[in-house]
Specification:
The protein is an alpha/beta fold. It has eleven helices and 15 strands. About 40% of the residues lie in helices and about 20% in strands. The strands form four sheets. It has a five-stranded parallel beta sheet. It has a four-stranded parallel beta sheet with strand order 7-6-8-9, with helices on both faces. The chain has a three-stranded antiparallel beta sheet with strand order 10-14-15, with helices on one face.
Length: about 400
């Protein structure tokens, strides 16, 4: 039923493309055509990423429904998730007179879009390196996350932060964060992605063996004493796993999913808890599987507006009877952004409007576009008792 529904959408949209441009050719001199907002949609609707593309398409359809303006027309093309088909589809959009396109999703598909100079592309990628001049990266990028983390670090008076990232992955992102020099790091480490090796590496970082040895030595000394205060101290130490504090006050881990869980669990096994150290990570899109892990309790991360995120999910589910791809909320807001610019410019779309210094407000929160990327005003959330609590 799901496939039949999505195919009916695609069929309808493709029919709209053909019929609309046929009408356009018959009415080239009709001034009313200038008041129609034509938005190209470039998504993977076949191949490996078809499911993601369909979810993004439904998000755009939902935005179109909420806008409820018959003068907003969307024109759909399948890029099959690869750069060549992205380029060929973009050329077709150019020939058809489309000036603004939502998509593609992936950074690797942007390769040749700089050659399509008459179109502005709002890509859903969060990668901002080597962007063509006519492409805006609309994803939740690392710069936006650094900005809000910096503000929160200052508020909490954090001064000794470790930066941890997996070996050979996120290397560019890790180096980029370090080079920006906005967040001051006490030390930087990379760890092996093999779960069996992570614990050993975290033990070395936290000097676990030395702190355990400190405890054992202190216990041996106290066991020889008959003093009341020493016996009391001994009782306390017998309940502990290590003795001595670590030389850092916070940790930022650039990882996701099960590996992030493994890293934080390793800290817990190394007797470093959130009672003495603040643990941070990057945007996790409110992953509820974190609630099942004790080590994730107290974890901080930057993210979009959670209340609106829940509203969007509820609205999407009510209309399509399925849960959306989490990132698809950005596709919803992207169409809203284009519509807002067009509507407030006497029904004419110009790419310069996207760079309004006053910024915009979408479901995912406040943002402005600068240097070909969206800069989001993110919040900081904390995992606490199986809830995401907004703390900043």
């Amino acid at each position: 039923m799901k496939k039949i529904f999505i195919l009916s959408i695609i069929t309808y949209l493709l029919f709209s493309i053909n019929s609309t441009f046929s009408d356009q050719n018959l009415n080239e001199n009709n001034p009313e055509n200038d008041k129609v907002l034509k938005v190209g949609i470039l998504l993977p609707l076949s191949g490996e990423f078809q499911g993601m593309g369909e979810s993004f398409l439904k998000a755009i359809q939902l935005a179109l429904f909420d806008i409820s303006n018959k003068d907003v027309k969307i024109y759909l093309k399948d890029n099959k998730g690869d750069s060549l088909n992205t380029y060929l589809a973009a050329k077709e959009f150019e020939e058809e007179g489309i000036k603004i396109v939502l998509g593609p999703i992936f950074h690797q598909n942007l390769e040749r879009l700089g050659e399509i100079s008459k179109i502005t592309f709002i890509s859903l990628t969060n990668k901002t390196n080597q962007l063509p001049k006519n492409v805006i990266a609309f994803g939740i990028n690392i710069d936006s996350q650094i900005d809000v983390l910096k503000k929160y670090f200052d508020k909490m008076e954090i001064s000794k932060t470790l930066l941890l990232s997996p070996t050979s992955e996120f290397t560019r992102q890790s180096n980029y964060i370090a080079e920006k020099d906005i967040l001051k790091f006490y030390r930087k480490y990379s760890y092996n992605t093999n779960p069996k090796k992570i614990t050993g590496e975290i033990e070395r970082i936290t000097k676990y063996r030395q702190r355990k040895k400190n405890l054992e030595q202190r216990i041996k000394i106290l066991e020889k004493s008959d003093l009341f205060k020493d016996k009391n101290e001994l009782k306390k130490l017998e309940q502990m796993h290590t003795l001595g504090n670590v030389n850092f006050d916070s940790v930022l881990v650039l990882d996701f999913g099960d590996r992030l869980k493994s890293v934080l669990t390793s800290f817990m096994f190394s007797d470093v808890t959130n009672n003495e150290v603040n643990f941070f990570t990057v945007n996790q899109w409110f992953d509820k599987t974190f609630f099942n892990e004790n080590a994730m309790e107290g974890l901080y991360f930057p993210a979009i507006n959670f209340k609106n995120f829940k509203k969007y999910n509820k609205k999407f589910y009510k209309r399509y009877n399925e849960t959306p791809n989490k990132v698809s909320i950005l596709a919803y807001d992207a169409l809203g952004l284009v519509y807002y610019c067009w509507y407030n410019n006497d029904f004419k779309f110009e790419s310069s409007q996207l760079y309004n210094k006053k910024g915009f407000k979408g479901l995912h929160g406040k943002f402005f576009i600068e240097n070909n990327q969206s800069r989001q005003m993110l919040n900081i959330y904390k995992i606490s008792e199986k809830k995401f609590l907004e703390v900043y």
